[in-house]
Amino acid sequence: MCLQGCMAGIAELGKPKLKATVTEAAVVDGSWPCKLADLQREQRECHVLLASWTEQGLGRSENQDRCIQTQGMSKAVPFHIVGVLDGHDTSFASQTTSEMLPPLISKHLVDGLSVFDANSMALAGVESILEERKCSSGTCVLCCTISGRFIWCSNLGDCRAALVQLQVPTGDHDYPQPDQLCWMSHDHKASDPREKRRIEEAGGHVKFGRIEGLEPSRTLGDFDVKNKVPKGTVSIEPEVRRYELGDGNDVSQAVLICASDGLWDVIRGEDLCNMIQQSWGMGALLIQLRDGQPVKDTQPMQRLAEDLVRLSRKRGGRDDCTASVALISLA
Question: How far apart are the first and last CA of the chain?
Answer without folding.
Answer: 31
